[in-house]
């Protein structure tokens, strides 16, 4: 098992390296000359002379071959130096440090909400005897499936904040007040719901429902019943464990979809996370910040996929032996 | 039998089972004393399995099921072993966990002892169901069904999918286990019942038509169905030879095929030489894993061997251009073990047949089906009907060679006989060459002129069907011994 884990970790590392190369490429291809911007910033806005620019370019190593520059950039990045924001002049890592925790909080809350709700609704849909209950779930999922995430977000905002004032409309605390645990939770509810119950939510419900329904009448479930096992064991071990494999296999990709939704959600709810920062950076053509955000988003998705794969392997021994053979 | 033992019995009184729309089991009465094996025998659809399920509490029913005079407790008193053992076990949980959860639910039983009782190494507790062979899985399922020492064990067609030698091992273990249990052996095969059961009850359309000690039922059957079942079991008429021969010839020289599954390598065929003349009917028999199906794939020009040659009518099929090889495949009819799985469920019977060649109503008539069936979907067909449709499909492409992989396993004896009659009639009328893979020696005797015995990828015996009983090779003798009924003299 340790060996399999290592091989998966190695693959993940390889993907991360490829991702960083793409990010570097993006940064490199971005319009504008970093040396010129630096000189401009130093001199307070006056355009620099071509000679000064050329001198600084040589000093910064910008004339080296791309692989050399990539190696230098990557080694800096590993040491926590992703350059400086061309907009604010602050180190990019400082900007990330301010924004990433908020985004992680929001996505973690949304994931927890989305996946547990999908599990619960999917199980009800698979096991409910009442037809109206199943049809009701179908209808709601159908409507949700047709609604883009930002529409859901605006709808939630309108119903719970603008029209009824039940919930705060945005930010992480009331203007001018410090962040408190209770206040944070209240501010978290709407954006987390908007992110969790986007159009992809129905897919997870279906994966749970179909997976469980397929094993519901399987001989091994009947066998578990005829052996007089307690109902709880039958459901958790014999129904859910094999039935949830398709759902858990999709969790990794699901985390990616969810994180992609974070940009619109953070803007709509003024959430001080990296999604909102990324939108601002894109407007200001602040490429160092934008690249760093793309890179960290990608790393989070890679990590989520790895975790999901390990969960599947823990659930299904057939996948474990498959992993061993893949080596 | 002491009075104490007499009290320990499974008693079924007035058992009725309904499925939506009709009654399938009509007031069944049955008493099985402890320590005895009762075989519940009958063709498909006679209500055997529904009766067994009702006794186990898996099926709503009328009437009463009593153990020692009190109602059976579901999950506690009846252990149930299913037909398809590996499907009846949770693929994500080890054998040991299956045993332990049953022991915990009833607070009695010993997992290691249960495995040992069924001839398995207790270390197998760490294995997952999909890591076991068919015979091991069935024995593990029996151990799991009996680990909490239920008074009754129901074995529902537990050996239908197993080769005769594995079947013998499994049923001998069930019999040994029956010393302190009541065993209900559900089977369609009187040969199985005659060898392993103390009593036989014959079920027909939900009613018991005959019930008595095994020896009496076998020597003095009182019902027509029992007689028909006995006849089907004993019927070893040699097949008729064709009047004119149109079939193709198959020649195989030094055939080798290695199967690579994951990191395991198995030599499935290890230097096979075989000549099959036009119009000949050859049965390839052997245990599971002896290479039978791999050989059939090679004969069909579907599976490319690693060494050796396959000749069809004198031409090497792997040396000819792809177009010619596809023409050879079109002249080869294939019949599979599980015909229903080889049909597209969205197709009608007509479409299923038409995918092989032009559909005509005569095809269905020839295989003994009503042409009105053409517009039905395969899901509604019985096992025997599905196999007939599969044969009709094979005939639609007008083949000169018919290859059949276990065409009768999973069918009851009466249906088996009808399918075999159809195959022999086909050869007689059309002069086709037929190669049939089977682990059932009875089917081989019934439909083939010649029997080739495979053992670990080698052809160890090749003799006319009539000489089968004089075969010398230990592998052949072992197969023969496993299906010989041990009849107690009346």
Automatic annotation (TrEMBL), chain A:
<feature type="domain" description="ABC transmembrane type-1">
    <location>
        <begin position="100"/>
        <end position="312"/>
    </location>
</feature>
<keyword id="KW-0472">Membrane</keyword>
<keyword id="KW-1133">Transmembrane helix</keyword>
<keyword id="KW-0812">Transmembrane</keyword>
<dbReference type="InterPro" id="IPR000515">
    <property type="entry name" value="MetI-like"/>
</dbReference>
<keyword id="KW-0813">Transport</keyword>
<feature type="transmembrane region" description="Helical">
    <location>
        <begin position="247"/>
        <end position="269"/>
    </location>
</feature>
<feature type="transmembrane region" description="Helical">
    <location>
        <begin position="289"/>
        <end position="315"/>
    </location>
</feature>
<keyword id="KW-0732">Signal</keyword>
<dbReference type="Pfam" id="PF00528">
    <property type="entry name" value="BPD_transp_1"/>
</dbReference>
<dbReference type="Pfam" id="PF19300">
    <property type="entry name" value="BPD_transp_1_N"/>
</dbReference>
<dbReference type="InterPro" id="IPR045621">
    <property type="entry name" value="BPD_transp_1_N"/>
</dbReference>
<comment type="similarity">
    <text>Belongs to the binding-protein-dependent transport system permease family.</text>
</comment>
<feature type="signal peptide">
    <location>
        <begin position="1"/>
        <end position="29"/>
    </location>
</feature>
<feature type="transmembrane region" description="Helical">
    <location>
        <begin position="102"/>
        <end position="127"/>
    </location>
</feature>
<dbReference type="InterPro" id="IPR035906">
    <property type="entry name" value="MetI-like_sf"/>
</dbReference>
<keyword id="KW-1003">Cell membrane</keyword>
<protein>
    <submittedName>
        <fullName>ABC transporter permease</fullName>
    </submittedName>
</protein>
<feature type="transmembrane region" description="Helical">
    <location>
        <begin position="181"/>
        <end position="205"/>
    </location>
</feature>
<feature type="transmembrane region" description="Helical">
    <location>
        <begin position="139"/>
        <end position="161"/>
    </location>
</feature>
TrEMBL record, chain B:
<dbReference type="GO" id="GO:0005524">
    <property type="term" value="F:ATP binding"/>
</dbReference>
<feature type="domain" description="ABC transporter">
    <location>
        <begin position="250"/>
        <end position="481"/>
    </location>
</feature>
<dbReference type="InterPro" id="IPR003439">
    <property type="entry name" value="ABC_transporter-like_ATP-bd"/>
</dbReference>
<keyword id="KW-0547">Nucleotide-binding</keyword>
<comment type="similarity">
    <text>Belongs to the ABC transporter superfamily.</text>
</comment>
<dbReference type="InterPro" id="IPR027417">
    <property type="entry name" value="P-loop_NTPase"/>
</dbReference>
<feature type="domain" description="ABC transporter">
    <location>
        <begin position="10"/>
        <end position="230"/>
    </location>
</feature>
<dbReference type="InterPro" id="IPR003593">
    <property type="entry name" value="AAA+_ATPase"/>
</dbReference>
<dbReference type="InterPro" id="IPR050319">
    <property type="entry name" value="ABC_transp_ATP-bind"/>
</dbReference>
<protein>
    <submittedName>
        <fullName>ABC transporter ATP-binding protein</fullName>
    </submittedName>
</protein>
<dbReference type="Pfam" id="PF00005">
    <property type="entry name" value="ABC_tran"/>
</dbReference>
<keyword id="KW-0067">ATP-binding</keyword>
<keyword id="KW-0813">Transport</keyword>
<dbReference type="InterPro" id="IPR017871">
    <property type="entry name" value="ABC_transporter-like_CS"/>
</dbReference>
């Amino acid at each position: 098992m340790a060996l399999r884990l290592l091989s998966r970790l190695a693959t993940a590392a390889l993907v991360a390296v490829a991702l960083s190369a793409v990010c570097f490429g993006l940064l490199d291809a971005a319009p504008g000359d970093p040396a010129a911007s630096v000189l401009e910033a130093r001199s307070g806005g006056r355009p620099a002379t071509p000679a000064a620019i050329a001198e600084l370019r040589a000093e910064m190593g910008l004339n080296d071959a791309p692989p050399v520059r990539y190696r230098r950039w990557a080694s800096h990045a590993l040491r926590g130096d992703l350059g400086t924001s061309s907009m604010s002049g602050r180190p990019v890592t400082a900007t990330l440090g301010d924004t990433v925790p908020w985004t992680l909080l929001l996505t973690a809350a949304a994931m927890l909400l989305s996946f547990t709700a999908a599990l619960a609704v999917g199980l009800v849909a698979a096991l409910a005897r009442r037809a109206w209950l199943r049809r009701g779930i179908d209808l709601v999922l159908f409507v949700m499936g047709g609604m883009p995430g930002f529409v859901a977000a605006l709808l939630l905002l309108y119903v719970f904040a603008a029209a009824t004032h039940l919930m705060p409309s945005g930010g992480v605390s009331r203007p001018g007040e410090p962040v408190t645990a209770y206040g944070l939770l209240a501010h978290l509810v709407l954006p987390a719901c908007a992110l969790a119950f986007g159009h992809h939510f129905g897919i997870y419900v279906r994966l749970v429902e179909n997976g469980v329904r397929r094993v519901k009448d399987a001989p091994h479930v009947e066998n578990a019943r005829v052996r007089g096992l307690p109902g709880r064991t039958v459901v958790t071990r014999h129904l859910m464990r094999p039935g949830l494999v398709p759902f858990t296999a999709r969790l990794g990709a699901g985390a990616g979809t969810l994180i992609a939704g974070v940009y619109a959600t953070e803007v709509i709810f003024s959430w001080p996370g990296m999604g909102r920062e990324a939108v601002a950076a894109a407007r200001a053509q602040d490429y160092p910040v934008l690249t760093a955000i793309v890179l960290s988003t990608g790393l989070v998705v890679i990590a989520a996929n790895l975790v999901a794969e390990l969960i599947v392997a823990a659930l299904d021994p057939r996948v474990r032996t498959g992993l061993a053979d893949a080596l | 039998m002491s009075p104490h033992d007499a009290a320990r019995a499974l008693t079924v009184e007035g058992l009725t089972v309904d499925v939506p729309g009709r009654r399938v089991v009509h007031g069944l009465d049955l008493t099985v004393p402890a320590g005895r094996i009762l075989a519940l025998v009958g063709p498909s659809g006679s209500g055997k399995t529904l009766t067994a399920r009702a006794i186990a509490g898996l099926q709503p029913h009328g009437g009463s099921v009593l153990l020692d005079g009190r109602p059976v407790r579901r999950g506690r008193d009846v252990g149930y072993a299913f037909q398809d053992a590996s499907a009846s076990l949770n693929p994500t949980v080890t054998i040991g966990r299956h045993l332990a959860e049953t022991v915990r639910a009833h607070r009695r039983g010993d997992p290691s002892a249960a495995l040992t009782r069924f001839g398995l190494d207790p270390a197998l507790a760490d294995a997952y169901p999909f890591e076991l062979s068919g015979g091991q899985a069935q024995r593990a399922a029996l151990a799991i069904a009996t680990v909490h020492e239920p008074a009754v064990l129901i074995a529902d067609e537990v050996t239908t999918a197993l080769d005769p030698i594995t079947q013998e091992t499994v049923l001998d273990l069930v019999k040994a286990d029956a010393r302190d249990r009541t065993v209900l052996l559900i089977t369609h095969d009187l040969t199985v019942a005659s060898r392993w059961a103390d009593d036989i009850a014959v079920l027909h359309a939900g009613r018991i038509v005959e019930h008595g000690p095994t020896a009496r039922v076998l020597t003095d059957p009182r019902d027509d169905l029992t007689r028909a079942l006995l006849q089907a079991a004993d019927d070893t008429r040699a097949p008729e030879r064709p009047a004119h021969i149109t079939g193709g010839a198959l020649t195989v020289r030094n055939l080798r095929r290695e199967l690579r599954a994951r990191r395991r390598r198995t030599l499935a065929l290890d230097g096979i030489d075989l000549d099959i003349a036009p119009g000949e009917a050859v049965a390839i028999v052997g245990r599971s894993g002896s290479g039978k199906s791999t050989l059939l794939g090679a004969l069909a020009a579907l599976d490319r061997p690693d060494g050796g040659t396959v000749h069809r009518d004198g031409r090497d099929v792997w040396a000819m251009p792809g177009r010619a090889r596809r023409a050879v495949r079109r002249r080869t009819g294939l019949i599979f073990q599980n015909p229903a799985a080889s049909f597209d469920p969205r197709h009608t019977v007509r479409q299923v047949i038409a995918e092989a060649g032009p559909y005509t109503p005569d095809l269905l008539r020839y295989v003994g089906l009503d042409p009105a069936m053409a517009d039905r979907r395969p899901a509604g067909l019985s096992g025997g009907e599905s196999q007939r449709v599969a044969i009709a499909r094979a005939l639609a492409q007008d083949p000169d060679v018919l290859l059949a992989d276990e065409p009768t396993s999973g069918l009851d004896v009466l249906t088996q006989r009808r399918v075999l009659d159809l195959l022999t009639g086909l050869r007689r009328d059309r002069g086709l060459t037929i190669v049939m893979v089977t682990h059932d020696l009875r089917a081989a005797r019934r439909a083939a002129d010649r029997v080739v015995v495979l053992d670990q990828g080698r052809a160890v015996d090749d003799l006319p069907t009539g000489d089968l009983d004089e075969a010398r090779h230990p592998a052949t003798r072992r197969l023969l011994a496993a299906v010989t009924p041990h009849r107690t003299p009346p």
